[in-house]
Each structure stands twice: as structure tokens, then as C-alpha cells.
Amino acid sequence: MRTDYCGNIDSSYIGQEVTLCGWVNKRRDLGGVIFIDLRDREGMVQVVFDPDLPDVLEVANTLRGEFCVRLTGKVRPRPQGQVNAQMKTGEIEILGTGLEVINKSAVLPLDWNQENSEEQRLRYRYLDLRRPVMSQRLQFRAKVTGAVRRFLEEQGFLDIETPILTKATPEGARDYLVPSRTHKGEFFALPQSPQLFKQLLMMSGMDRYYQIVKCFRDEDLRADRQPEFTQIDIETTFLDAEGVMSITEAMIRDLFKTMLDVDLGEFPRMTYAEAMQRYGSDKPDLRNPLELVDVADLMQSVEFKVFSGPANDAKGRVTVIRVPGGASLSRKQIDDYTRFVGIYGAKGLAWVKVNEKAKGQDGLQSPVLKFLSAEITDAIIERTGAQDGDILLFGADSATVVTEAMGALRLKLGNDFDLLEGEWRPLWVVDFPMFEEVDGALHALHHPFTSPRGLTAEELKANPVGALSDAYDMVLNGVELGGGSVRIHDQQMQSAVFSILGIEEEEARNKFGFLLEALQFGAPPHAGLAFGLDRLVMLMTGATSIRDVMAFPKTTTAACPLTDAPSPANPQQLDDLAITVVKKTAE
Amino acid sequence: MRTDYCGNIDSSYIGQEVTLCGWVNKRRDLGGVIFIDLRDREGMVQVVFDPDLPDVLEVANTLRGEFCVRLTGKVRPRPQGQVNAQMKTGEIEILGTGLEVINKSAVLPLDWNQENSEEQRLRYRYLDLRRPVMSQRLQFRAKVTGAVRRFLEEQGFLDIETPILTKATPEGARDYLVPSRTHKGEFFALPQSPQLFKQLLMMSGMDRYYQIVKCFRDEDLRADRQPEFTQIDIETTFLDAEGVMSITEAMIRDLFKTMLDVDLGEFPRMTYAEAMQRYGSDKPDLRNPLELVDVADLMQSVEFKVFSGPANDAKGRVTVIRVPGGASLSRKQIDDYTRFVGIYGAKGLAWVKVNEKAKGQDGLQSPVLKFLSAEITDAIIERTGAQDGDILLFGADSATVVTEAMGALRLKLGNDFDLLEGEWRPLWVVDFPMFEEVDGALHALHHPFTSPRGLTAEELKANPVGALSDAYDMVLNGVELGGGSVRIHDQQMQSAVFSILGIEEEEARNKFGFLLEALQFGAPPHAGLAFGLDRLVMLMTGATSIRDVMAFPKTTTAACPLTDAPSPANPQQLDDLAITVVKKTAE
Questions:
Q1: Contact partners, residue A104, CB within 8 Å, separation at least 6
Q2: How far apart, in Å, are the Cα atoms of A227 and each of A163, B102, B513?
Q3: CA separation (Å) from A287 to A269, A420, A423, A481?
């Protein structure tokens, strides 16, 4: 039906006749001459209909936006002054000699020249995706998955599919359930990840596995999450953490080079402890130069209880962020930041402005100055490197609250003061604790199949709180791109971890009996990693939501305005499945 | 941890030291010298432990089947007479100089030297997959998907993901449902195919789409089906049936050449009518030389009502299969075939043996001979080309029964008489009817989005029964590899088809309103096809069940003996989903 794509026609085609199919992007009538921009996936080209060809002009006169047409014409240079150097097709135009309307279009319910509501965009997704920016994102995504696949296949990874209808996981509260017809009263769960299956594949000797795979989580979607999301899932045998990090770092470096011509260089590494201390985050954005500087040692004897209390508490923390140029902040702005840290549980935000430092303490302004000796303020100024015009913002509370609040404040200040440096700052975070304590109980920081680092099962049981895991997260610009670990391949160790996590023997047998059993049959050492594809593509395309890099995302209430899913089920079907509905959400 | 794969060590390594990781496939003790076959994904290699290295020998003595080990050793030629030319590693052996047991193995619950029950194989799938034949099938499958992706991406197809949580389809009875937590009382459905989404992607201008994607169908699994299966799903814009067939035929040809070094040649084409007439099947196995030869015209005046009845009925059919060498069939064997066609509703199976044809009707043996004049038997023998020693088997009944029964009989005879010729016989079946009549109602032979061939909406409504569709199926060795069609891109035509199918306007609006709406906005012509990946890989690997080319299939009752899915749900979860279980399947 066509000889080429619209977006491919450049000056090398001059003099040729081409036939194109596409959509009318814009139509202008300039004194009887009709111009249209004809659009397809590859781009747009300008077409001119001339009164010298009245039959074609007559058809062109009926064209409206988004009509689907087939056009034949002759490529010629644009008149002088009309060349658009920004466009591939900007040097030429096509004189239309034949025109067929394939399908008319009603007036679009979306106006591409203004913001449309998310609801409208999703309801008419097929029209929203016609916008070049959206089309290009999906094309980019397809190229990313192609490049990832090529890289991994060259490295001997096998693409192996794991089940979507599977068993509920320990974090079952967020599982989507699927009633079984043949086993009435029982349910499949949609996988939150193929974790156990990929481990089983390693035990089956598949050696190197990957899959670009849908995962599912029924959770709060406000934080730009989606009920179904896509992972680049990787697992290897006979490789340690170093080996997995090396392959996956090379993969991401290769991807950025291929797709964006960006050289990410070698990724630096940072321990979890250092990341939490300096940046208040386990996924620090290194483009942001602000750091948390600990000053508890200086505050132990000050009269100000807000500082000395946490400074003398083993679980407390006193830290300060120096904001260059921050002395200009108004009282109201400081109040806003105080409210901001309050979201994270901080009870206040002490501050010291540095204005004429040369004058000693006289150059400082602060409501808390009276509590701090010149010796202490000098030491703080020296440690933070504060200069005239800066502000120092203090966090003092339990370490948990301070780290979270000041970590969040650091990000906000970095944006507000426009401090971000550099375009891409990758990072490996390593040496995570095995467990975190929440309300007296231990939880796995990664998942219960993560191997501890250099410990026997007995040593781990003796001191679980201090144990580090063999886990690693890849972080880019403050976003966790992926995370993984060396897995436990020893049955005793796996039982020890379940027992530390308070998973009773019977529960462990019920939920993970097959894994424990599998570990008996010569299970090999294995390790892996999973990347969030949606987030990766979002970062690489500069989109602001993962919804903008998915073809058919759901709304924040997990609905699809296009197909109107979910919807009530046919009573016969519920009967077949032997379930009934107890309560309905009001419309 | 290793320098290479076990299966890669050939005579080019002689003299080198290698370190390998893998599993003990077999251990033999020959007068104090221990031999093991060490296995990994890539193959096996023979290792020798010699009494000259007693420390290593001592460890080797503890080895049992499926122990996971790390071995260091020196590659040397095998002694004369021990060379195995069948194996890549058959010319060498490794003298073990270092050996570490990574993980011991309990005695396997599966015995690889004998048949294991399907249940046991699936329960210990990770062990079943260690068998080289199974491992190689999964590796083959991964290479197939890689080759398909490369082919399609070179042709400009974009890999775009469509939702798994979606809306129930018209064939909703077989949908898996997923209760929504945020919209209590409502359900998502898992897709039986991404049909509507891929059509919407064409309307969004994505031009060429593909996806290797899981689909779901909650149906009887006895016929080697699985609740989740994988499609190679393809859709294109501005291409007609010819265009889609040409690309997808090239893809399959390329795949067979790359993977099996088989040249499939150009695929012949056959109309649906011819396939049903000559082979009694819409997916004829052309390796089978038997054909159905119609003889109704010869039977209209015979006295035998079993023949003359259907021969004079417009909806009847009288046909004959000539089986070379079939005259040797015993009465009991013929009775067995009679029972076989009975499964398909045939009330009998008349036969004529041809023994001394030269003698005329005297050379024929048959209980029905008395009803047939010599003129008629001569005509039948001429038309079927029957020779001495053949048998003619007759089907006479309604065309539906005869076609189905004789089509099935043809396949069975082809196998029983070992008649299959040639290894690979591809075929396109085209010119399907738009609709089939079942109990007076019209059903879509493909699906309701299939375009009729060369008809306006008015013409279609005037004579739906005679209409042909623009659909095409790719068949290989009697298996439907894939099917597709040109889709309807005109709103009037789509409404006409819905109305012919008896889908009321309101129902159409409820179920497909979004599709009808989308057709208003300059929808382009589009067409596509979907291949069954599991079936394709099964054929290519010579496996006898799709379960043997899937990593973790379900049983015929749609359960997973490995993870024990499906399983009862946590009551709190059901509460959150606002559903209750009415009835349980007894254990």
C-alpha cells in the first residue's frame, strides 16, 4: 500500500514519486493551496496540494485532523525560507498527485495542544499514543528490551518462561488471587516476582536465566506504581556477587551507550551504612552535592536538650546539612521546611545562618545560638565547611527519624536550590544488613532467600542483628534500578533464616517446603538480580511517570478507563468458580 | 569459580588445566580408579581420579549421583579404544587434581533410567529438567524466541507489552477471573489473547507490533493444553493478507533454516473447502498421502440406502479412502476402525477389499458388494486408483459427520500403515467461511473482528452464510501453527458482524464499545497473526507434549505439584477482596 514511511523522506528522495500512508496531523489552507503534515510512526512530512490538480485538491479539501489517508506524490525541495533544519523531512515537501481517504475521523476527544486529564488520556489511550512523544517512548522501550536481550543472550543467558498462575507468596497480602475452577475453593496467585522459580531453574542446571517478565502487586498505587509491572529478571549459577555485578553493570553501561550515547563509566560502590550516614537514603542521588554531616560528638554537653538528648543516646542521631546560599531563606521558607521534615516525624528543624563568619559567632544568626558555645559553632563550621551566605539545618532525634527526615530534606533542598550536578550518576549500594528490626521483630531487608556474607548458619543465629547480606542494589540518580543478592543454597542456612524471621517450621514447610526439599539435591551456588524495566525506561526517556512508558497502564485506583476493567462478573461464572461477592465498592 | 563449561572440553584443550563446576552424572569404581561423568548445561565430560593422587581420590570416593562439585584437572586424550566419537568431549578425559564437594545430594526421587509418572516429574521438576533431553528442549526454545525476535525486529516490529489484568472477553466462560481489591465485587480477566489491544495499537499508529506473550484459558486440559500458554503475537498496519502471510512465512522458513538447517521451501496454499473435501480437516497433514475421494454422484441410484440417502441429500456426503495394502486387514481390525469412526458419530464403516482386480467385481470382497453394480464399482476403482491388495473404506452420512470421521480415520490409517512421507509439510489454509452454523445460530469461525473478503457491510448482511473471510491459518504436519486475518477497520462493518452474530447493540456497546468508538478516529487497515509458541517448539524438538517444552507446566487438572498451587487462601485476604468460597472440591 505504500513505498515508505512518511518520516523517512529526505532530500535523497527529491524527484522521486512516493506513496505514503498515515494520518493528517495538520491541515492549512493558504489561498487555495492546501498544506498537510502527514504523520506515521517514523515522523511527519509536508504535503502540498496545488490548484493545478483540481481533482486531488478537491479530496484534500475534505481532509480533517486524524483522517487516515493514502497519498501519492512527487518529492521536491521546499521553497527557500521554508526549510526546517530541525526535521529529517524539513528540506523537502511532497506535491500530492493522488489522494485516497482510507478512514475519516470524528473530532478527537483529546486536545493535543493542551494538558488532558489522566482519565481522558487513558480512556482514549489509542489516541494519546498517536502523539509523537508517546509513540517515541514506546519505540524507545522496545529498543531497550531488544538491546538487553541481545546483550544477555550473547552472555549465554537463556530466556525461560516461569508461570503466571502460581502459589501465594509470604508477602501474600499484596498478591492478586485467581480462583480455580477445577479446585473449587482454592486460588492461584499472580507472582510478585519469579524469585523461587528462577532459583529452581538454577537448581535444574539451566546455569544462566533471564526473563523480561510481568510481575503483579495489589498495593497502593499513588506512588507511581502499577498493578502489573515488568522486570528484567536475571539469575546465574557459580557466580558470586562480584560476578553478577560485573555482568549487570556492563549491561546497563552498554544500554546507555547504545541508546543514549552516554558513557556511564565504572560504577562507584558505597556501603549501606555510608549511604544512610552521608545521604540519609539507601538509594542516594549523587547528583545532589548536599550531605548529612554528623555532629553528635560535639553536642553531648550542650545545654540544649533537643541536641544533647539524641547526642547521648546510642539510638539517637544529630546531623546537619549545609545549604550553600541558604542564608537567604525567609522565616516562612524555613517554616515550610520544618513542616516538610515533620511529615517524616521530625519535631523541629533548628537552623544557623552564616552571614559574616569572619566576625566569629557574631556572624551567625540562630534562635539556638544561645545554647552553643563559640567553640562548638566553630567546630561545626569547620566540619561542614560553611561559608558566608550558607544555612546549616539540624536534625536531632532517633537515628531512624533523623536519617529519613534529613534524607528527604536533602533531596528537596537539592531541587529547590537547583544544585544537581551531572546528568547520570550510577552507584552500587552494598553490605546491606540481613535484617531490620521493626517493633522488636526481625524482617528480611531484601527477601528471606538472601545469603548472609561470610557467616555459617550457627554464627548467623548467634548474632542476626549485626549480620550483613550478600546483596547489592544498583542506583541511578536516586532511583533504585535493580536489586539482587547471592541466594542461600544450603538447607541449614535457609532453615536458620526462616527461624530468625519467626517463620515457624510448619509454616516454612507449607510455604517453602518445595524449596527446602530442592536444596537437598546438590543445589548449586547461585545469585541474581532484577531490574525494574518501567522505571529504567522512564529515567532514560525523561518521562515523569511510569505510566508514560507503558502502552496501557491503569489509573491510580487500578482501573482501565479504556476497556472499563475491572467489571462485574457474569453470575454463571462466579457459580462455576464457587465464589460469591460479599460487598461491592459503591460506584 | 570455573574456567569453562563441561560440555565444551574437546581435544583442543589437551594439555590444559581446567576448572569445572557441575553435577556428578555417573560414578564408576574400576579397581580403585574412579570415573565420573561431570555434567552441566552444555554437556558431559569424563573425569578420572587416580590412586597416584590419594587426597583427591578420597574425596572422589565420597561422590554420589547429583552431588554438585568443583573440579580442577588436566585434559588428556582418552586411552585408545575408549574414544566416543558421538560426544563432543568423547576424545578426551580429565585427570582430576582438585575436587571440592559444593553440595551433597540425597538419593533422587526420580529414576532417570525409567519412565516416571507425570505427577512425580512435575513435583520434582527441577530434577526432571536436569535430564539432558529436557535441558536441551528449554535451550532450544530460548533460541527459537531469540531468532523470532531478531527476525521481527529487523522487519521493524516493535515489542510492546499489553495488559494481563484486563476485561472479560466474549468467550468469557473460559476466562480466568481476578477479584479487584479497590473495586470490590468487580473482576479483571486474564487475556485469552491480546487481540483487542493489538488492534488498538494499530489504531494508535504503532504500525508493526509483536509480542511473545502469555495467554490464559480455563478449559479442559486433557487435549494437551495448558491454562497458560505462549503466543507469538503479530499485528501490522497497511498490509493485506498477502503481506502478512509473506512476512510470517519468511519468519518460519528462516527459523527452520537457522535452528534445524531445514529448507521448508515456499508454502503451498489450499482453500478451506478443498482441505475439508480432500482431507476432512482444516489443518491437513500433507505427509499423509491418503485422501477422501467423493463418490456421492455414483451412489445416487444404488439400492443401498446407507449410500443413496446421503448421496441424494444436499447436506449429505459419501466419500471413500483407499488404503494401499489394506486388503490384509482382519475382520477384527476393520471392526476396530468402525468403532473409531463411531466416536465421531459415524454409524458404520462400509468397506471393499480389492484382491484380483483383473477379474472385475469377482476380485472384490465386501458385504455391500451386492448393492453395487459392476459399473459403479468400476467407476469407484477408477476414481480412487485402487490396486490389488488395497481396501476402500466408505463414509456416508451428513457431510459434517463424514468429514470429521473420515478426516480422523485418514490420520489414524496414515499412522497405522506407516504411510507418512517427507519430514516437514507446511501449508497455508485460506478462504475460510466467515461464519459457521451451529444449531441455527451463526458463529464466527475465527473471531468477530475478522474482515470478510471483498464484501460491503450490506452485501455481508444480505448473505452471511456464503461469505468468505480474509483469514489464513499456517499448518505444519497437521498442526495449526498459527492463524490470523485481516481485521475489520470500518465501524459499519464491525456493527454488521456483531449483529449477524446476534450480539445485541447494548451487549456490543458494553463489551466492545471502546473498539467501536476507536474505529471512528481514522482507524487504519490492519491485519495480523498469532503463533502458538509451545506447539511450534514441540514440533521442532520432536517432543510429544507441550508440557515437555515448558519449564513449569501444570497437570491435566491445572495444578502444580511442585508448589502445590492452587491452594486455600488466607481468610483475611478473601475478606479484603470481599468474596467468599461457596463450595470446595473434595480432596
A1: A64, A67, B522
A2: 17, 40, 24
A3: 15, 5, 7, 16
Query: Which of residues B378, B404, B421 is at a domain's end?
Result: B421
Burial class (CB in 10 A: 0-12, 13-18, 19+), B551: buried
* Min Cα–Cα distance to chain A from B403, Å: 33
Is residue A556 within 8 A of residue A145, CB to CB? The reply is: no
B184 is a domain residue: no
Test A102 with B525 for CB contact under 8 angstroms.
yes
Q: By C-alpha distance, which of A179, A563, A132, A141 is closest to B163? A: A563
Task: Give the residue on B whose Cα is nearest the Cα of A515.
Answer: B563
Give the 3-state secondary structure of residue A70: strand
CA distance A501 to A446: 12
B188 contacts on A by Cβ (under 8 Å): 176, 565-566
**Residue B6 phi, psi (nearest 5):** -55, -50
Work out whether the CA dihedral A6, A11, A13, A14 comes out positive or negative. positive
What are the beta bridge partners of residue A76? A93
Calculate ∠ Cα A203-A206-A210, nearest 5°. 110
Asked if B168 and A227 come within 8 Å (Cβ–Cβ), the reply is no
Distance between CA atoms of B17 and B19, rounded to whole angstroms? Answer: 7
Chain B: closest CA distance from residue A146 (Å): 8
d(CA B324, CA B290): 9
- Chosen for mutation from A71, A105, A521 (greatest number of chain B CBs closer than 10 Å) is A521
Q: What is the pLDDT of residue A357?
A: 65
Instruction: Say which CATH number the domain at B67 has.
Output: 2.40.50.140
Rounded Cα–Cα distance for residues A535 and A554 (Å): 16
Which residues of B sit in the known binding site for L-aspartate? 171, 217, 446, 487
Boundary of a domain, candidates B421, B443, B462: B421
- Residue-level pLDDT at A586: 66
8 Å CB contact between A371 and A302:
yes
In the 8-state DSSP scheme, what is residue B173?
G
The residue among B567, B570, B576, B580 with the most chain A CBs within 10 A of its CB, best to mutate, is B567
**What is residue A171's predicted lDDT score, i.e. its pLDDT?**
55
When divided into structural domains, chain B yields a total of: 2
pLDDT of A220 strictly over 80: no
Contact state of A190 with B178 under an 8 Å Cβ cutoff: yes
Are the beta carbons of A584 and B568 separated by less than 8 Å? no
Q: Identify residue B384 by its one-letter amino acid code.
A: T
Task: Say yes or no for a CB contact (<8 Å) between B554 and A205.
Answer: no
d(CA B445, CA B528): 16
Query: pLDDT tens digits, residue range B281-294?
Result: 999 999 999 999 99
In which residue ranges of chain B is pLDDT below 70? 169-173, 357-360, 586-587
Q: Is B463 inside any structural domain?
A: no
Range of the domain at B398: 288-421
pTM of the shown model: 0.95
| Residue B44 is assigned to a structural domain of this protein | yes
List the single residue in A188, A204, A490 with the smallest CB-CB distance to B126.
Answer: A204
Contact A165 B554 (CB under 8 A): yes
Contact A159/B145, CB-based, under 8 Å?
yes
The CATH number of the domain holding residue A349 is 3.30.1360.30
Is residue A215 in a domain? no
